[in-house]
Specification:
Elements lengths: L7 E8 L3 H17 L3 E2 L7 E10 L3 H15 L4 E5 L3 E3 L4 E7 L5 H20 L12 E6 L7 H4 L8 E4 L1 E10 L2 E11 L5
Antiparallel strand pairs: 1-3, 1-9, 2-7, 4-6, 4-8, 5-6, 6-7, 9-10
Helix pairs in contact: 2-3
Length: 196
């Protein structure tokens, strides 16, 4: 396997919670993540991936940011809003996650989420990048390397029903690996709502 040039960056677009939303989410899933037998996602890494791009040459990052700016301008008009109802397990990647769902009475916010993800994937693909084109299942990963068939107690997180995320912007994130885990840093962010 050939090493990747140091100029490559692993990038993805994401929605990030604000601090109160992050704290509420962590409080709701903490017990389940601990019981899962997997590796809990560090609180500072919590996000919802909109489009995973993989390795991108450093020289192409400004071009990617211009595409993101165009998507933000076309998708502006309201915050992305969604909630959670439960935890679920994906056996193949061995991941415990919280699927995103529409909030009662706020379906438009969830539709904006789906449109934003599709716009980022199609725009970056048309621009010569290689977004992951697997079917989009919006979710927040809670724990990785979870042993098979977690029990009902592990999947129980009733407080998740009271957690909602409202995101008025999206971000381009970079992944760097340090020791046992990944570190995420923000490369750029774009508003979806009027800043006034």
């Amino acid at each position: 396997m050939q090493p990747h040039p140091v100029t490559d960056r692993r990038l993805f677009f994401a929605l990030l919670p604000d601090e109160p939303q992050r704290r509420a989410f962590v409080a709701a899933v903490h017990g389940s993540a601990g019981r899962s037998g997997g590796r809990s996602v560090p609180w500072q890494n919590l996000h919802l991936t909109l489009a995973f791009l993989g390795r991108v040459p450093k020289a192409r990052v400004p071009e990617l940011m211009r595409l993101a700016h165009a998507v933000a301008a076309n998708q502006a008009g309201g915050a992305v809003e969604f909630g959670f109802a439960e935890l679920a397990y994906w056996p193949r990647p061995a991941v415990l996650h919280a699927p995103a769902r529409p909030l009662a009475g706020a379906a438009a916010g969830f539709e904006r989420l789906l449109r934003l993800a599709e716009a980022l994937r199609s725009t970056t693909g048309a621009g010569g990048f290689s977004p992951d084109l697997k079917p989009f299942h919006p979710h927040v990963t809670v724990a990785r390397k979870v042993p098979p068939a977690p029990d009902a107690r592990t999947l129980a997180a009733p407080a998740l029903a009271d957690v909602a995320w409202r995101c008025g912007s999206f971000a381009l994130m970079q992944i760097a690996h340090r020791g046992e885990g990944a570190l995420y840093s923000t490369v750029g962010s774009w508003l979806l709502v009027d800043s006034k």
